[in-house]
Design goal:
The chain is α+β, with helices and mostly antiparallel strands and 370 residues long. Helix content is 19%, strand content 30%. It binds 1-hydroxynaphthalene-2-carboxylic acid.
């Protein structure tokens, strides 16, 4: 063996022993995107989720499950049960009378209701009742517990920024030690929150856009997110209906974002929550974003077309993910019904880091930055 070969071998060996890796050995892994662990486009069909969750509601007691949820697990990210490298999601089922005890954690969380009335989340003393399409927020650090006061199962989609918290080494912890103090008495640990706010506090306080009360405290618990915890589906529909007369975006159609009514910013620091409406007959152009988006089909049906002829077909209540970098367009395949997609993306995180980029591809193939 030549000296150089021997020297190269011992360079490799000695480096490895010291926790050092030669760039030229690692280069393919560093530079080739094919070697990265990334989320893939994927759809979870309601017709598949519903029977499994119904079965779980029969045979898995809440006391054992803590949260009776099936987690949307992206095949590209196994063994992690994550939708993307930033977004976690699950579909939860609460039978009448069932509840989850009060807790808090650094990741921000949200619920989006699919089915059933009588479900609620108590957040920082407010009992947020939910109906289909409503968004309930539990921004990072807020105490929350859940329940179902109705007489039918309640099913909702949970979305959290938990993978992001974990990837940033924010070793998050689930806290259950919740105490309440009555004046002059000792603090007592509780598993549910005493409701201290009037019914529909969030909506009563903030739901007239552009106007905020000036005599109230808008800091709620340790929240770094919106003080408005409930966004009603009916309000989203009303806003979208008012926008119909305006020209839609060529890629996204008509869309709205839920915002923090005090700052005008996103409802939680990391994620954006909103709704896309593709009117019947609307033809979208292809686009690609550096952010990843998860969708739930709240109304209508259609498909997501991607490059190389890849297609995801979806129907009402289906949940799907379009990961970062994917060229895509959503097609409303129902000629007589508007498509309504509830959407959560990590765009605010990418924007804050200077990573957010969006491109549109015109019909002739020209790519334009937006
Ligand atoms: C959580 O707090 C809930 O409040 C659901 O229902 C899922 C997953 C990981 C961490 C916290 C809930 C969760 C979670």
């Amino acid at each position: 063996m030549s000296t150089v070969v021997q020297e190269r071998e011992s360079l490799t060996k000695n480096s490895r022993q010291l926790g050092l890796t030669e760039y030229w050995v690692e280069r393919e892994i560093i530079e080739n995107p094919a070697n990265r662990t990334t989320a893939v486009p994927f759809v979870w069909h309601w017709k598949d989720i519903q029977p499994l969750l119904a079965k779980a509601s029969d045979i898995v007691p809440m006391e054992e499950a803590y949260r009776r949820a099936l987690l949307f697990s992206n095949p590209g990210l196994a063994p992690k049960a994550w939708m993307t490298t930033t977004i976690y999601g699950g579909c939860s089922w609460y039978n009448p009378g069932e509840s989850a005890e009060v807790h808090r954690h650094p990741p921000s969380a949200s619920r989006f209701v699919l089915q059933g009335n009588g479900g609620w989340t108590a957040v920082e003393g407010e009992k947020c009742m939910m109906a289909r399409g409503d968004l309930i927020l539990t921004p990072n650090g807020t105490w929350h517990n859940h329940g179902n006061d109705g007489n039918e199962p309640v099913i909702w989609v949970d979305i959290l920024d938990l993978p992001l918290a974990e990837n940033l080494n924010n070793s998050w912890v689930m806290e259950y030690d919740y105490y309440e103090v009555k004046s002059g008495e000792k603090a007592v640990q509780r598993t549910t929150q005493t409701i201290t706010k009037t019914d529909d506090y969030s909506v009563k306080t903030y739901s007239v856009g552009g106007i905020k009360p000036t005599f109230m405290d808008h800091q709620r618990g340790l929240s770094t997110g919106s003080p408005m915890f409930v966004y009603r589906w009916a309000d989203a529909v009303k806003a979208l209906n008012n926008l119909r007369e305006f020209e839609p975006d060529p890629c996204g159609g008509h869309s709205i974002e839920y915002i923090n009514p005090i700052t005008g910013g996103t409802v939680v620091p990391t994620l954006s929550f909103g709704v896309y409406m593709h009117e019947a007959g609307f033809q979208a152009d292809f686009q690609r974003k550096t952010s990843s988006t998860v969708y739930c089909v709240i109304q209508g049906k259609g498909r997501t077309e991607m490059d190389n002829g890849k297609v995801m077909e979806w129907d009402e209540n289906d949940v799907f993910v379009v990961p970062s970098g994917t060229w895509y367009r959503h097609v409303n395949t129902d000629p007589s019904n508007d498509l309504m997609l509830y959407a959560v993306s990590d765009e605010p995180t990418l924007t804050k880091l200077g990573f957010f980029v969006r491109h549109r591809r015109l019909a002739d193939g020209t790519i334009v930055a937006r």
